[in-house]
């Protein structure tokens, strides 16, 4: 026996004694030695308010109301009425910022001055929010404290800068107030997949950004060697010394030379207010970044050709576009697509896809059940017709005897219930006859409207209606106007007849079960109302005639016989929740940068020439300008004007950061999420199509085996051949 083992029976389990060190560890675990806790380890808010403090308890009641008084527990992400109240205050503050109108020379309208007076009230509310949350949660050193939440950090920075601006600090950071618009993202549950996809993609996006920065830096250094001080020479008049051109020039061919009476000399500020050049590494990086966005890079190439000739410049700019734009910037799409697909699969666990498959299966079974009911009704109607033919002679004889008997006495006709029953039986027989005829007509119309020929005929009518709408043009002849006017009534009558036939043949409930039928019903009713109103009041219109053009959307009914296209459309409709959430995120992003642009550039886009149409003077103009930058159209021109409005190349280059961030995060991140959703939906559509093909193949194989089993009873050799073929 060992020293640490207790003796026992031969079959009993071995029991080991603990050593002294093990016993000490066990006692320390169950009876730990009290450790002195410092002020950083004790859960005291601001080192003053403990967990049992009355002030802290009331602060928690305010921030967490209605919890703990509610029956259901509050989770960390569940918004409270206090948060909704603060959110309403944020929205009101954003409305105040949007109503401001910026004028040149820092002038303000009377309305803007009155709106500025509301700033202390908003700062007071936000300070109260921050203070009561700090008291309730602690400031920074404890778990779940105030500054350990990203939204609270953003709020604290905004409140701190607002206080500094209010007390009269030398710098004004009230521009950051616009960032609070992003607070509603916390309360929208549909944004979780999109936001988590973007956040999880940040690490690979930063890696791509680092790789892109090295490529930009490499091309900037090469451009610095090639084109430094090349864009400051232009043509000046020899006699007066005035500038005679607005393009770079060279002293000898193949560069662009000056005309007679002018000379190519320095000093010209350069193209685009002197911003586009390669004089130092910062200007070179900005110019290369503009080139890889493919906006204005051709102008820079032409300026380089004017300054140094067009022989070798393409060897610099073409690889720059291929490597920087075609390859590296498009890597963002691949990263976002992969992260979005993984996040959606992890969060939803493919529940939406499975629900879609179950829904399609239920619809298919429901369609088959309705077809079976229709066939059963037709069979029952045929059996009723057969029975009615067999008993027609007996019924006629019986009814004639009843008529003779009822003619004998008026009192019998009035008092006897048998006579009333016989007359009612005659009426019921007639009603049954007409009911069968009506059912037969309705079944015939049902078979007609569900036939493939009727389907393609309606599609042809939609195509002809599309052609009639498309050939309308300005200054068209009168006969064409009159013909199209009549054609509109003809198409309206045909579509109304189609709707009536479907509604009668299928029944109202089955008719409105289809979304296409509901859409047709709304458009046709609107068109009828438009025609009636135009007849009552000629020339007046409610704009409902525009809905008639929406009938052209019925061309999507072709997806009924196009499985892959139908699955793609269904997958896109199934992802509308993610698309709407992304649109909401994009809207908030545009609003934030529009308000930031109003604070930075409002009233400053006033130059000697005509003021540009793209400006940040009002909120609608700022929204349109930011959206233009997101599309990538002339964003560099807006950046040039922004830099010039802040003092030009000497003092305003810092403002280029605003436009670079807007382009990178808006154009190359958020807008690429749309493409990521589309790629994910395409994969879902392909998966749906593949599952349908496998299911159809399995059904065909099952039918072939059943057929072989039936044939086997008659001819074993034929059954073997059928099974081999299957």
Description:
It is a multi-pass membrane protein. Among the domains are: 54-69 and 77-189, Up-down Bundle (Four Helix Bundle (Hemerythrin (Met), subunit A)); 451-558, Four Helix Bundle (Hemerythrin (Met), subunit A) (Up-down Bundle), CATH 1.20.120.350; 568-709, Helix Hairpins. Helices cover 67% and strands 2% of the residues. The protein contains 28 helices and four strands. The chain has helices spanning 20-30, 54-64, 81-99, 110-116, 119-137, 150-166, 192-200, 202-227, 281-292, 297-308, 314-329, 331-348, 351-390, 392-406, 410-415, 417-449, 452-470, 478-506, 508-511, 515-536, 545-549, 563-574, 576-601, 619-631, 635-645, 648-651, 656-712, 716-725; strands at 5-6, 15-16, 234-237, 262-265. The strands form two sheets. The protein has a two-stranded antiparallel ribbon. Helix 8 packs antiparallel against helix 11, helix 22 packs across helix 27 and helix 23 (576-601) packs across helix 24 (619-631). The chain starts with a strand and ends with a helix.
Describe what is shown at a glance:
This protein has 726 residues and is mainly α.
Number of strands: 4
Question: Strand fraction band?
Answer: under 5%
CATH class of the domain at 568-709: Mainly Alpha
Helix content: 55-70%
C-alpha-based Rg, rounded: 40 Å
* Principal-axes shape call: extended
What does the largest sheet look like?
Answer: 2 strands, antiparallel
Q: Low-confidence spans: pLDDT under 50, at least 5 residues?
A: 1-6, 68-76, 397-427
Overall residue-averaged pLDDT value: 75
Please work out how many helical segments DSSP would assign.
28
Class computed from helices, strands and strand pairing: mainly alpha
Q: Span between N and C termini?
A: 74 Å
The name CATH uses for the topology of the domain at 568-709 is Helix Hairpins
Lateral strand order in the biggest sheet: 1-2
Proper CATH architecture of the domain at 568-709: Orthogonal Bundle
Organism: Scophthalmus maximus (Turbot)
Family: Belongs to the calcium channel alpha-1 subunit (TC 1.A.1.11) family.
Membrane topology: Multi-pass membrane protein
Subcellular location: Membrane
């Amino acid at each position: 026996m060992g020293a640490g083992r207790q003796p026992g029976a031969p079959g009993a389990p071995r029991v080991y004694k603990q050593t002294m060190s093990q016993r000490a560890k066990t006692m320390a675990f169950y009876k730990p030695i009290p450790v002195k806790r410092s002020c950083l380890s004790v859960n005291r808010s601001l080192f003053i308010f403990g967990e049992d403090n009355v002030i802290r308890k009331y602060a928690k009641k305010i921030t967490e109301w209605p919890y703990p008084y509610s029956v259901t527990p509050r989770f960390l992400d569940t918004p409270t009425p206090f948060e909704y109240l603060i959110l309403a205050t944020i929205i009101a503050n954003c409305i105040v910022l949007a109503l401001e109108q910026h004028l040149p020379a820092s002038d303000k309208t009377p309305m803007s001055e009155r709106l500025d007076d509301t700033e202390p009230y908003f700062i007071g509310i936000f300070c109260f929010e921050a203070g009561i949350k700090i008291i309730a949660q602690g400031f920074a050193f404890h778990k779940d404290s105030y500054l350990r939440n990203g939204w609270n950090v953003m709020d604290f920075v905004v409140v701190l800068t607002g206080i500094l601006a209010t007390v009269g600090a030398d710098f004004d950071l009230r521009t950051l107030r616009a960032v609070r618009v992003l607070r509603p993202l916390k309360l929208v549950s549909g944004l979780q997949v999109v936001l988590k996809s973007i956040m999880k993609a940040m690490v690979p996006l930063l890696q791509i950004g680092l790789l892109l920065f090295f490529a930009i830096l490499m091309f900037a250094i090469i451009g610095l060697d090639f084109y430094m001080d090349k864009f400051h020479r232009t043509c000046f008049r020899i006699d007066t010394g005035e500038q005679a051109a607005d393009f770079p020039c060279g002293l000898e061919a193949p560069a662009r030379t000056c005309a007679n009476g002018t000379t190519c000399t320095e000093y010209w500020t350069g193209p685009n207010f002197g911003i586009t050049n390669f004089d130092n590494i910062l200007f070179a990086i900005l110019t290369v970044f503009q080139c890889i966005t493919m906006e204005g890079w051709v102008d820079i190439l032409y300026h380089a050709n004017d300054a140094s000739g067009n022989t070798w410049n393409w060897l610099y700019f073409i690889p720059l576009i291929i490597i920087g734009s075609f390859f590296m910037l498009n890597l963002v799409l691949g990263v976002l697509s992969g992260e979005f697909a993984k996040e959606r699969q992890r969060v939803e666990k493919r529940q939406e896809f499975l629900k879609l498959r179950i829904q399609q299966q239920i619809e298919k079974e429901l369609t088959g059940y309705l077809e079976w009911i229709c066939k059963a009704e037709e069979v029952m109607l045929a059996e009723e017709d057969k029975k009615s033919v067999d008993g027609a002679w007996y019924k006629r004889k019986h009814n004639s005897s009843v008529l003779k008997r009822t003619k004998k006495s008026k009192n019998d006709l009035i008092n006897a219930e048998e006579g009333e029953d016989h007359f009612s039986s005659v009426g019921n027989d007639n009603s049954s006859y007409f009911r069968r005829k009506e059912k037969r007509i309705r079944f015939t119309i049902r078979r007609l409207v569900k036939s493939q020929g009727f389907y393609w005929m309606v599609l042809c009518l939609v195509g002809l209606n599309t052609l009639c709408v498309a050939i309308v043009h300005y200054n068209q002849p009168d006969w064409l106007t009159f013909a199209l006017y009549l054609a509109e009534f003809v198409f309206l009558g045909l579509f109304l007849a189609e709707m009536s036939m479907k509604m009668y043949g299928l029944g109202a409930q089955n008719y409105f079960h289809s979304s296409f039928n509901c859409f047709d019903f709304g458009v046709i009713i609107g068109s009828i109302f438009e025609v009636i109103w135009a007849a009552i009041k000629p020339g007046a219109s409610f704009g409902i005639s525009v809905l008639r053009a929406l009938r052209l959307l019925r061309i999507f009914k072709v997806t009924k016989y196009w499985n892959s296209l139908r699955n793609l459309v269904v997958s896109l409709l199934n992802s509308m929740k993610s698309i709407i959430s992304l649109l909401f995120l994009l809207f908030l992003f545009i609003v934030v940068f529009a308000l930031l642009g109003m604070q930075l550039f409002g009233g400053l886009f006033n130059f000697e020439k005509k003021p540009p149409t793209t400006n940040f003077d009002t909120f609608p103009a700022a929204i349109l300008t930011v959206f233009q930058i997101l599309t990538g159209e002339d964003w560099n021109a807006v950046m040039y004007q922004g830099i010039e409005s802040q003092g030009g190349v000497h003092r305003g280059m810092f403002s280029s950061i605003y436009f670079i961030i807007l382009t990178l995060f808006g154009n190359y991140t958020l807008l690429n999420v749309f493409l990521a959703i589309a790629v994910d939906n395409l994969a879902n559509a392909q998966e749906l199509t593949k599952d349908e093909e496998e299911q159809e193949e399995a059904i065909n194989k099952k039918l072939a085996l059943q057929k072989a089993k039936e044939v086997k009873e008659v001819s074993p050799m034929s059954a073997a051949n059928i099974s081999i073929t299957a």
